[in-house]
Amino acid sequence: MSLIQALQNPAAYPHPVDKIELIETHISWILLTGQYAYKIKKNVRFSFLDFSTLEKRHFYCLEELRFNSRFAPDLYLDVVPVTGSLQDPHINGNGEAIEYAVKMKQFDGNLLLSHIADRGELSATIIDQLAVLIADFHLHAATDVSDSKFGSPEQTHYWFRGNFTDIKPLITNDRFCRQILQLEQWGELQLSNNTRLMAQRKQNGFIRMCHGDLHLGNIALINNRVTPFDGIEFNTELHWLDVINEIAFVVMDLQQRGLKPMAYRFLNHYLRLSGDYEGLTLLPYYLVYRALVRCKVALFHWQQFKEARYLQEAESYANMAEGYSKPTPPKLFITHGYSGSGKSTYTMQMAEKLGMIHLRTDIERKRLIDESQKDVGNAVNQGLYTPKNIALVYHRLVELASSILNAGFSVVIDAAFLQSEQRDLFAELALAKQMEFVILDFYAPEQELKRRIITRQQSGNDASEATLAVLEHQLKTAQALSATEQKKVIQIDTCAPDALNKLLQRNSL
To answer: Could you give all domains of the chain from N- to C-terminal order, each with its CATH number?
Structure first.
């Protein structure tokens, strides 16, 4: 009788147990007892972890308690010994330990975001809460800017290559093999192209002590609070990461589940909070890496359990990785319209549904302008809105847009663009990059513009600081779109019914 079989006897526990449920992964068993869950590490050794001795399993149980208490202190309770014998074990009993378990507060598995997503109940509110939580966690997480190997280009790519070391011996399908070899070659090229940026990001503090395994199956909604758990404690090299590597797992997992709009909602919300648009250059590399990690895990399950669904899952993740390595040509969109015309409302939704990066002037202005200027006043031609600061912001948006387009992502710039010189900056950028350029011209009647601005000011929950005075100034000074620009225009009447769907259905998109 194995230890795990014996632990399915309620008498093995120091508290009342009515029913025991067993969950098995390739590296652990989890025993659900009703009030508590006990996680026991398997006696296994892989390229990325070593649980091959009792001493090591005890150490990593303690590490799991310490590491995951950062995210979920109410879930992770203790490390307890398993005593007695293999035939008659006791959780937290007397005598010499024969094994160790992480004791956790049990929660309803239906609260996992993976299950919530499967039920079609993953809301924008949950995604926004997750983005805020992760952005804040990354902001305050420990940073490594030392000469250590953590997060270095060589160490990062060591783990990228390690996927192929583990995957290739497990596949025999010719197409699958060719696909994996092509991805391996693509990865080498990406390393060559991005080594300098990877090293620079470490120097700039983007290598942080992250969660390490942040997919929807490791995040729960407990008491309506998004709660990550089960981070990677067993290998420090796998949780000292570039923060973009971390969020890539969430983005990839949402897309794999057919939730592309949620993936881009999360990505754009995280980027608005962090401002880390530079990291998008590395995002395709990390998306491929994360898809290959899941491919590898699925193959491990297939090898262990011999169920065909795991092989199908592995092939699905490999297809995702291939897709990330072959992005479609990006496009550049700018908006045009007065304050209150609906630019932000529509472009945020458009960015989610079409898979684009959304840059909003109202956010980037506050991030860019020196703190000392923010209290001067925000009326027309004052504070953040002096001609000098306005020009500074538009030039910064050109820099960000250029970087995002170079990374292979389409981008929509959400700004008024009421002056021709502002629009010309982006027309020239698109021309230089030889890519499609579209002007989204948003319209609403003047009375409706005023109504929306007043409502927005009263709610106080929007980044825009536009007032009726700002609108009056815009109406007097706006420069009309030229005949040349009109050829690039898609007009959107935001008072018309179903305006968003009409926008999305346009052939130009």
So the answer is: 3-106 (no CATH), 113-324 (3.90.1200.10), 332-505 (3.40.50.300)
